[in-house]
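Pirin family protein structure dump, as promised
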Amino acid sequence: MIDVRPFASLGGANHGWLKAKHHFSFANYRDPERMSWGRLRVWNDDEIAPGTGFDAHPHRDMEIITYVREGAITHRDNLGNEGRTAAGDVQIMSAGTGVVHAEYNLEPEVTKIFQIWIMPDVRGATPNWGAKEFPKASKEAGFAVLASGRPADAGSAALPLNVNGAVLAATLAKGQTLTQDLAPGRAAYLVVAKGAATVNGAALATRDGAGIVDEPRITITAEEDAELVMVEVAKE
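structure tokens r here:
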């Protein structure tokens, strides 16, 4: 099953400094049909004005992944971590027992991000933060694993997550196709960060999402040059 969620159908809010769209229920947006997708709980599409951001606030027992689409985001937390993550790159924060962090757009232009929350398999883990560059050019069409807690990815260069799931990304030239297997009991959620693509024949435009379940193989074809971000998690 492919559940296409057009960008225009997403909930959201405009706070002036922050324009947010929500693929799933979040803050004041409530839709009982869009609460989560397997262990994926939040996928927010945020635009943050220059010189603004999220002041210090706490999290616990959540895997929080930030994928930067344009601009850059600067992270600081009470554990002493600090870093700037630029467009096309990803950062993770395993909140675990608790962390207080702030995220700011210190750039002269609007920063655009996907913020993704995945429910962890283990509660009370040691908090962790890290960042990774996204391989922006590849000779072969395929997903790069940016962050993962899947046993098959143990020992890889992916950022670690406290969940049997992964965050993947790919760039495709127009007309290029990739395939990805999806094991029984697994679910995926894919968003086209840039461009347009079809997923098993279902059309997705820029910033559209697709919930994918009970599809043993995913075939993605770029209708335009495309940048894709996908989360793969347990279905239950």
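The radius of gyration is 17 Å.
lmk if u need the other ones
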